[in-house]
Amino acid sequence: MALANGIERYPLNESSPYRTQFLESVRVPVDGTEFLMLSGLTPPVIDGSVPSERAEAYGDTEMQTRNILTQLKATLERRGYGLNDVIKVQAFLVGDARMGGRADFQGFSRAYAEVFGTAETPNIPVRTRVQVAGLVEPGWLVEIEAMAAKAG
């Protein structure tokens, strides 16, 4: 859906309960560059036998990060971008009870390093990682927002 000087807004998947509250992403053209801003991505359930309010339903921080980055890549590709186009990443990590309430920054970094700064994706973005008190779903340990840019 195109609006206001070439800005394109992309809704969430029709099955999302948040579809009427926020978008999947927005493409904004500025002086020959197209910016793509993505809403926060969260982990999928990997073990449906575990209640969704428990982290075990989604995996540890490393697994959640890996699965979110897989979603990020798919979303970027769907919009005509790639991981090398990512210019900014913001990561929100929740303290893991198995780590005494501290966020697993090392687990996050291991999964992140599988994607950024590699031979396939040498361009690394600017990044912020913070520990937060909680996310919408109690079992989520990670949420990642990203922004990408490419020549228009």
- What is the count of β-strands? 7
Main beta sheet: 7 strands, mixed
Rounded mean pLDDT is 95
Q: Give the SSE order as H and E letters.
A: EEEEHEHEE
Distance N to C terminus: 17 Å
Strand fraction: 25-35%
Alpha-beta classification: alpha+beta
Account of the protein in words:
It contains 2 helices and 7 strands. With 152 residues, it is of the alpha+beta class. Strands 1-2-3-4-7-5-6 form a 7-stranded mixed beta sheet. Strand 5, helix 2 and strand 6 form a beta-alpha-beta unit.
List keywords for this structure.
152 residues; 7 strands; globular; single chain
Nutshell version of this structure?
The chain has helices at 61-78, 105-113; strands at residues 2-3, 7-11, 23-30, 33-41, 86-94, 126-132, 142-151. It is α+β, with helices and mostly antiparallel strands and 152 residues long.
Topology:
Blueprint: E1 2-3, E2 7-11, E3 23-30, E4 33-41, H1 61-78, E5 86-94, H2 105-113, E6 126-132, E7 142-151
Parallel strand pairs: 5-6
Antiparallel strand pairs: 1-2, 2-3, 3-4, 4-7, 5-7
